[in-house]
Design brief:
Layout lengths: L2 H18 L3 H12 L4 H7 L9 H37 L18 H15 L3 E2 L5 E3 H4 L10 H5 L9 E3 L4 H10 L4 E10 L11 E11 L4 H16 L5 E8 L2 E10 L16 E10 L1 H6 L8 E8 H8 L13 H4 L3
Parallel strand pairs: 1-4
Antiparallel strand pairs: 2-3, 4-5, 5-9, 6-7, 7-8, 8-9
């Protein structure tokens, strides 16, 4: 086979293969196969020494033209494939500007946080500070310094989550009161909101994890009248200026005397309704004068200083204020429910 015929076959074969290419990566393989250092045209040129001298210019010209035609076809095919790829990408990523924009869903505060901020603002307005403490607490602060020694029934009543013999998940935020009394300085006016843990079954009014807000005042000449006046003002700001308060004798190990406080039903004004179960009153919190033994265990002279303490369940405040009938609704994360607040 002479050089001219071989060149013609290479030319036709290259054109056929290039026309069948459907991907850019295959195009480079064809270019190397025909035009590379070891390509077919390069190898053909190495055989020019066997061509007669008078035919070499003609064959050389034919090789050059074939190389140019293959390169031109490769360039046109590359542009065509790049255009196809770009159109496919644009079609896949096409944006329909006539579609409505996506609405941003902006969250808001949880009912618990709304209630907590309101409670905090009321007490801050009366000169109290907000303090916090560890949720994993020592038995010393969770019980003993609150006048609940080993073997005291209150330890059983609160169904504590024990981690070790000396470490518990706090059952109340009262340990913050003990730590604040130890740390000082006096006088003290503080509230301590936070999560607490008790081994309760989950139902409409109970949960093993819930929130408390406890408060305390320690100063000279603090009396029960100060406690009643403070809580009466708190109730009026929280539930309305017509709210009345009532104190019933109770027992708490860390206060003496102790009381439960009721507020007049803000739905019926104290007349009696389904909301207050016909009594006209709603139990809201526990309170009392700080027990002298608690003061002494925290390094405060009970003969010179007195004080009062109070404690309430934050969820209970939220349930009452927003008329929610089931505690579990606060933790089910149902957006349909939460967006009402």
């Amino acid at each position: 086979m002479d050089m001219k015929q071989k060149l013609q076959e290479i030319h036709e074969e290259a054109i056929q293969k290039i026309q069948q290419i459907d991907a850019l990566d295959k195009l480079q393989e064809i270019r190397v196969s025909y035009l590379g250092k070891k390509g077919q045209l390069t190898s053909l040129l190495k055989g020019m020494k066997d061509v007669a001298k008078e035919e070499r210019p003609v064959v050389g010209q034919m090789v050059h033209e074939t190389q140019s035609q293959i390169e031109e076809l490769l360039d046109r095919t590359k542009k065509r494939l790049e255009e196809v790829a770009l159109n496919a990408k644009l079609e896949a990523e096409e944006i329909d500007v006539t579609l409505p924009a996506k609405k941003s869903k902006i969250g808001h505060r949880h009912p618990n946080m709304i209630a907590l901020e309101e409670v905090e603002n009321i007490f801050i307005g009366m000169g109290y500070e907000v303090v916090s403490g560890p949720e994993i607490e020592y038995d010393e602060y969770n019980f003993r310094k609150l006048n609940i020694p080993d073997g005291h029934p209150a330890k059983d009543e609160q169904d504590t989550f024990w981690i070790t013999d000396e470490i518990v998940l706090r059952t109340q935020t009262s340990p913050c009161q003990a730590r604040t009394m130890e740390r000082g300085p006096l006088p003290i006016r503080m509230i301590a909101p936070g999560r607490v843990y008790r081994s309760d079954e989950v139902d409409a009014t109970h949960s093993p994890c819930f929130n408390q807000v406890e408060g305390m005042v320690i100063d000279k000449n603090i009396t029960m009248a100060d406690l009643k006046g403070t809580l009466d003002e708190f109730a009026k700001q929280l539930f309305g200026p017509e709210t009345k308060t009532k104190f019933r004798p109770h027992h708490f190990p860390f206060t003496e005397p102790s009381a439960e406080m009721d507020v007049s039903c803000f739905k019926c004004g104290g007349k009696g309704c389904r909301f207050c179960q016909g009594t006209g009153w709603i139990e809201i919190l526990g309170c009392g004068m700080v027990h002298p033994d608690v003061l002494e265990m925290c390094g405060i002279d009970s003969k010179e200083y007195t004080g009062f303490a109070l404690g309430m369940g934050l969820e209970r405040i939220a349930l009452l204020k927003y008329e929610i009938d089931d505690l579990r609704r606060l933790y089910e994360n149902d957006v349909r429910f939460l967006k009402q607040f």
